[in-house]
Amino acid sequence: MSRKAAVVALTALAPISWGSTYFVTTEFLPPDRPLFTGLMRALPAGLLLLALTRKLPQGAWWWKSAVLGALNIGAFFPLLFLAAYRLPGGVAAVVGSVGPLFVVGLAALFLGDKPTAKSLITAVAAAFGVSLVVLKAGAALDLVGVIAGLLSSLSMSAGVVFTKRWGRPEGVGALALTGWQLTAGGLVILPIAFLIEGAPPALTGTNLAGYAYLAFGNTAISYFLWFRGIERLSASSATLLGPLSPITAAIIGWAALGQALGPVQVVGMVIAFGATLVGQMGPRTPKKPEVTESFTSPERNGQELSMDLEDSGVRR
Questions:
Q1: Which residue among 20, 124, 284, 288 has the highest number of C-beta atoms inside a 10 angstrom radius?
Q2: CB–CB of 220/20 below 8 Å?
Q3: Distance CA 259, CA 252 (A)
């Protein structure tokens, strides 16, 4: 397996994991608490990563971390969960279908990446494929849910582009940067959640298990892999992995919830997955991020795990 294929495969684990969010939200979590759910997903994970890495932002990275945390977490999570609560799981997955299109436009503005025919065609194909996946019989479209889904996609797309633009500060690994963003995003959500939703609800063992999965497996690990991948891939290539999330959500809905999965949905999955694969092809090398300590040392040779831990800022 080539180095790029390995990076793509690891990065793809993040949207695959996020595809389970809709199932966990509807089956394990208390109803109608999108802000509290976003808080419980972000803040515990961020604090854990801060404790592991023992690094805090310096200088301009205080406000950069706050901006990235707001885009990738603080705004994205509440909007995502609002869409998940108000729409069926497959329809809620539309949040990822327009992400590549948003990224193409934002990358042109802020990264100087001119849109190519390939990037536009694959983005449109991915959105079309996902739209076929979510067009299920009897699925109701709630206007608030749809708007929340689109805004969440725009927020995360902007987060991807600015993560690519700013890179990482010297000597700071992706694990520490992930911790900064999750903590900042959680702190953005915290006062809003208590102001709008009030005191936390009484939690059952099932609720706690769902929140634990979302915070650590679905967030801490997945966002580390995601931000690590953004550094090594172009913004459009990374975002075109997004359709794996609704594909996963649809498969889980079919396998675990008995939701219908007809020929139209299968065709949509094939189109979306094909667009994802095509989006990873090509010789174009992304611009290097603003960082002197690189993730891609040529001397890895069988030592991927140990070097990733060192590079991520974990003190052993």
A1: 20
A2: no
A3: 9
Residues 6+ apart with CB under 8 A from 292: 170
pLDDT of the residue at 291: 46
pTM beyond 0.85: no
Rounded CA gap, 41 and 231, in Å?
23
DSSP state of 115: -
Cα pseudo-dihedral 306, 307, 312, 316, rounded to 10: 50
| Residue in the structure block whose two tokens are 């769902």 | 210
Residues with Cβ < 8 Å from 122, sequence gap 6 or more?
A: 100, 236, 240, 275, 278, 279
Residues 235, 157: contact at Cβ < 8 Å? no
Contact criterion met (CB below 8 Å) for 233 and 107: no
The pLDDT tens digits for 57-88 are 999 999 999 999 999 999 988 887 777 677 76
Return the exposure string of 80-114: e unless at least 16 CB atoms fall within 10 Å of the residue's CB, then b. bbbbbbbbbbbbbbbbbbbbbbbbbebbeeebebe
- One-letter identity of residue 7: V
Residue carrying structure tokens 């993730």:
295
Long-range CB contact pairs, 108-115, < 8 A, 24+: 110/161, 110/162, 110/165, 111/161, 111/164, 111/165, 111/235, 111/287, 113/234, 113/235, 113/236
Helix H, strand E, coil C: the string for 129-153 is HHHHHHCCCCCCCCHHHHHHHHHHH
Residue bearing tokens 């690519």: 164
The 10s digit of each residue's pLDDT in 121-139 is 998 898 888 878 766 555 5
CA distance 251 to 305: 30
Residues whose CB is less than 8 angstroms from the CB of residue 107 and which lie 6 or more positions away in sequence, other chains included? 113, 161, 164, 235, 236
The CA angle 164-168-169, to the nearest 5 degrees, is 145
- Which residue has tokens 């174009």? 284
DSSP code of 290? S
